[in-house]
Specification:
- With 841 residues, this protein is of the alpha/beta class.
- 29% of the residues lie in helices and 21% in strands.
- The strands form 11 sheets. The chain has a 5-stranded parallel β-sheet, with helices on one face.
- Helix 1 runs parallel beside helix 7, helix 13 crosses helix 15 and helix 21 packs across helix 24.
- The longest helix is centred in the C-terminal third of the chain and has 18 residues.
- The radius of gyration is 30 Å and the shape is globular.
- The protein starts with 7 loop residues before the first strand and ends in a 14-residue tail after the last strand.
Length: 841
């Protein structure tokens, strides 16, 4: 701090994302310290990511949403007053008075008050159980009401726009049945047209939402069950709670009271320099009506903050307009709109690809000569957004239909002009990014640091990667900040050096102490290269939640128990034991698609007691919790079926017993079908075996998930010995070379040469490593031992299976269930801080 500087005071009213951006920008650019800043925040928490508010559901950790540097620790020129609302402005005296009675003088007053949720004047809108969806405190209230309503209760969201669908997803995650009421004839009317709205409604309905479009809300009344919501079509919804998400309004009351000019539709009127009708008062973000127009996205808000900083430091910057493009993932559904999405430009033409079967909708709006892109809408698949949006206003590089057709032209980064906006949040062009690359920024973090591109929503990162690749930059394959090597390289290091501990590996080949990326990855590598128990010694501390307790954690903090049933076979005695265990411990029983039985609802301290019973009955761990082999599904094959050509059950049992416990980069699923009728659905598995008249056809790389893939044929008409040999080689080659958490389908697609290359490696031994791969698999088979049986014999390992280390016998009181209906279901009342494990099924 320079004591000789003539210092002025800027008072900022509001500490949201835009207010924080203003403070950050002013402090970074005002290197001489000409301005000191006072920030007045109505909320109890410092600035957090309101755009990512829905991610608060589940972890319930406000700190995870906190914006970096939001407390200005160690900065003597910034004073942050939390929970202190600005009550009034004395423009003549240039003072602001707060709800605590404090008064602050200012040389410049920056209003960053944002917006507030609009609650329509529906009779009963102020009933207990009615909420808005705006702040962390709002979500805490919704969470408590959802818990009181109970699992499966209806939750009504008034408003089917962007925030409305986010709110509906929040209710779904809280265990409620969401109803969305939208007055317009489609969801998200501001972003999508009728065609896109129809696809969107179908997709979200399939995900469990009940959608009511073209209707309003007549009244909300208290009832014994909670709330009765009456719609304008006279239909009635009995609900546990109601969330209003019918749009927002500029939070401009303090400016109105101070006599500042207000726009006809609200908002504090400013010029292009964000100056209000008072030359000492500025407005930024959603509360600002720039020449009469309010902008509700964070990107233009950031732009307004930067402009005011420029003006306070003597510049002449002006608001350049706003890109209102949006790319969203709502309930897992991609939605994007950009430019003139609704085709209001005179003479505009529309090119539409509406694929109801695939659940996708794409529309491009072009000029009357079909040469200039004006805008577009993408629903169901928005992968083309990052390439198309920067082209708005520019000549099209191909026919419009080709750009949205699955078999059409692929739009690369080289097709974009230098002035194409890559990062709309921070207004960063392709030319700026390419310039940074030319100056030595050779990875994503470096580009983020010197251009700010990709530092907000992150939607532009895929295009930044394309620009890096186009520039010839070799992308880093580092596993994380602690290891410069890729997972495959670390695997080779472990094999060659014989290092058997994480501490030894990071000491010799890494740096720091490790993180939640490299620790479980190295643990997996160590497990893949030996038969040591994963809870032995130092390895125990490396495991994630599931492997730490050798069970798959469920949403209420309990665990599932899944005994192995090779080929789906189980004896009558084992079934009886499973039933007795389920009854004794009050477990929910579910037969899975992998032909085995899941037992849900076990507490940590119950796991050893349950497994003791199962192990004594001859069963072992089914590894539902690990990145390893899960199941080998089969049909009954030639043993029972009149169409069967080979013994599919026998082969499935052989394969499951061979590969059980095999640790890998991701989970593995196999299947064996006894004929081409494919009852075991083998081509949907990582390894699929289908019987033929002469032997077996081997398929590889089938995956479910977000992007399902059919397995492709690796080799045909194999005898038993060759089949097993090829599977050994394939699985071990995958384990050695795949990236962290990479499924088999994307792994083999990323290989140079794809399936043809794999055929050469696996079937022709083109790399000369077939013997090594087979030997590694043989070592795994020889060293296999059931993990739970080993735990039961080791008192040290058993000691970890407690809910409370200081009360080993105590049960977790936050765990509860609702079994009043036909099914036992978890109640989420007691999980404010419970970490959720990666789903194991």
């Amino acid at each position: 701090m320079n004591p000789t500087v003539d210092r002025k005071t800027a008072v900022v009213v509001g500490h949201g994302m835009v207010g924080h951006r203003f403070v950050e920008a002013l402090r970074s650019r005002d290197t001489e310290g000409h301005w000191q800043v006072v920030v007045l925040s109505e909320e109890r928490l410092p600035a957090y990511d309101r755009v990512g508010l829905s991610s608060y559901i589940g972890n319930w950790d406000p700190g995870a949403l906190a914006l970096p540097g939001n407390e200005y620790a160690g900065d003597d020129l910034v004073e942050l007053r939390l929970g202190q609302r600005a009550e009034s402005i004395d423009r003549r005296a240039r003072k602001v008075t707060t709800s605590a009675g404090d008064t602050f003088g200012y040389d410049a007053l920056v209003l960053a008050t944002g917006s507030y949720p609009f609650v329509p004047p529906v009779p009963g809108h102020d009933q207990p159980g009615c909420f808005v969806y705006r702040t962390i405190d709002d979500l805490d209230g919704i969470r408590a009401a959802a818990a009181a309503a109970g699992p499966g209760a209806a939750g009504v969201v008034i408003g089917g726009g962007l925030l409305g669908l986010e709110a509906a997803n929040a209710l779904r995650l809280l265990g409620l049945t969401p109803h969305v009421v939208e007055y317009n004839d489609r969801l998200m009317p501001a972003q999508v047209d009728a065609g896109g709205g129809a696809i969107l409604e179908r997709l979200v309905t399939d995900l469990g939402l009940q959608v009511h479009t073209g209707v309003g809300t007549s009244s909300i009344e208290a009832s014994d069950a909670g709330l009765t919501v009456v719609l304008s079509d006279e239909s009635v919804i009995e609900a546990g709670l109601v969330v209003f998400s019918a749009g927002v309004r500029p939070h401009d009351q303090i400016a109105r009271d101070a006599g500042l000019e207000i726009g006809p539709r609200g908002g504090i009127v400013t010029d292009l320099g964000l100056q209000t009708s008072d030359p000492n008062v500025w407005a930024i973000g959603e509360c600002a009506a720039v020449e009469g127009v309010c902008y509700g996205l964070v990107a233009p808000g950031y732009s307004t903050a930067e402009i005011v900083v420029d003006r306070l430091l003597g510049g002449t910057g002006e608001f350049p307009g706003a890109d209102m493009s949006t790319k969203l993932k709502l309930l897992g559904v991609d939605v994007a709109s950009f430019g003139d999405a609704h085709g209001v430009t005179e003479g505009a033409l529309s090119v539409v690809l509406h694929d109801a079967a695939k659940g996708t909708y794409a529309k491009l709006v072009v000029s009357d000569d079909a040469k200039i892109l004006l805008g577009g809408i993408l629903v169901g698949d928005a992968s083309a957004y990052s390439a198309l949006r920067p082209l708005v206003g520019s000549p099209l590089p191909a026919e419009p239909a080709a750009l949205i057709s699955p078999a059409g032209a692929e739009l690369g980064a080289d097709a974009l002009p230098d002035d194409a906006q890559i990062c709309s949040c921070n207004n960063v062009s392709k030319g700026t990014i390419c310039g940074a690359i030319a100056d030595g920024a050779c990875d994503i973090p470096a580009i983020k640091k010197c251009t700010t591109a990709g530092t907000s929503c992150g939607g532009c990162v895929p295009m930044i990667k394309k620009l890096l690749e186009q520039s010839g930059v070799q992308m880093s394959k580092a596993l994380c900040e602690h290891f410069e090597q890729s997972r495959a390289e670390l695997f080779q290091i472990v094999q060659v050096t014989g290092i058997r501990t994480f501490s030894g590996l990071i000491a010799e080949h890494g740096k720091g102490t490790g993180c939640d990326i490299c620790k479980p990855t190295v643990a997996s590598i160590l497990a893949s290269t030996s038969s040591e128990h994963i809870l032995d010694g130092e390895q125990a501390a490396l495991q994630d939640t599931n492997d730490h307790f050798l069970a798959n954690m469920q949403k209420n903090g309990t665990y599932s128990v899944v005994p192995r049933m090779p080929g789906g076979e189980v004896t009558a005695e084992q079934l009886i034991t499973i039933g007795e265990v389920a009854k004794e411990f009050g477990l929910y029983v579910k037969v899975t698609g992998g032909q085995r039985i899941d037992l849900f609802g076990a507490r940590v301290e119950q796991l050893p007691l349950i497994w003791k019973r199962l192990v004594d009955a001859g069963m072992e761990s089914g590894h539902a919790y690990g990145k390893s082999l899960r199941t080998v599904k089969s049909c009954v094959g030639s043993t029972w079926c009149r169409y069967g050509q080979q013994d599919s059950v026998g082969m499935a049992v052989l394969l499951e017993k061979r590969y059980r416990g095999l640790r890998s980069p991701h989970k593995l699923k196999l299947a064996v079908s006894g004929c081409a009728r494919e009852c075991a659905e083998a081509r949907g598995k990582d390894v699929g075996v289908i019987a033929t008249e002469h032997g077996w056809n081997l398929y590889v790389g089938g995956n479910g998930g977000l992007t399902p893939k059919h397995a492709v044929l690796l080799a045909g008409d194999l005898d038993d010995e060759t089949l097993i040999k090829y599977i050994d080689r394939y699985l071990m080659f995958y384990i050695r070379t795949a990236d962290r958490l990479q499924r088999t389908a994307p792994w083999q697609e990323a290989l140079d040469g794809g399936i043809d290359y794999l055929k050469q490696v696996i079937c022709e031994d083109s790399l000369g490593i077939a013997g090594d791969l087979e030997a590694a698999m043989a070592a795994h088979v020889a060293g296999y031992r059931d993990e739970w049986a080993a735990v039961l014999e080791d008192e040290e390992k058993l000691s970890r299976f407690v809910s409370f280390v200081n009360a080993p016998e105590a049960a977790d009181p936050t765990i509860s269930f609702d079994d009043t209906g036909d099914r036992k279901v978890p109640v989420l009342l007691g999980l404010p801080d419970m970490p959720l494990a990666t789903p194991g099924k």
